[in-house]
Specification:
Number of helices: 4
Distance between the termini: 73 Å
Helix content: 25-40%
Structural class: alpha+beta
Order of helices and strands: EEEEHHEHH
CATH architecture: 2-Layer Sandwich
Low-confidence stretches: none
Strand content: 15-25%
CATH topology: Ribosomal Protein S5, domain 2
Strand order of the largest sheet: 1-2-5-3-4
């Protein structure tokens, strides 16, 4: 199997995924998964598509993460891994879609409006 590439995005985070057959190592920005995401919850989010398909030990994954915070980065990595797995095994798309991993979450931060302190907040109103 050749090297498979995919991109995942969430909020401001971008994950570039490189998937190849191997022993189950996940390297993020040249660090192990446990070092990059110390939280077990974020590690679980990244591994979700692999766990659903039960192929955790079958592929080596190299991830380049950029932008955003920890949560956005972990969910961007999940989307990228999902897309790479769909390229590698086309018949698993229905399984991953049922779990909700195929859909890109479009929610981003709303922009700040001029003349206001934040996107929706207004300055205190004074009648007199």
């Amino acid at each position: 199997m050749a090297l498979i590439t995919a991109i995942g995005r969430r909020k401001e985070a971008i994950a570039r995924i490189f998937l190849k057959e191997g022993t189950g190592k996940i390297i993020i920005n040249e660090r192990e998964l446990g070092q990059y995401f110390p939280s077990p919850l974020l590690q679980y989010v990244v591994k979700q598509p692999l766990n659903v398909l039960e192929v955790t030990e079958k592929y080596d994954i190299q991830i380049n993460l950029d932008g955003g915070g920890f949560k956005g980065q972990s969910e961007a990595a999940r989307l990228g891994i999902t897309r790479a797995l769909i390229k590698a095994i086309p018949d698993v798309k229905a399984i991953l879609r049922a779990e909700g991993f195929v859909t890109r979450d479009p929610r981003t931060v709303e922009r700040k409006k001029p003349g206001r302190p934040k996107a929706r907040k207004r300055f205190q109103f004074s009648k007199r």
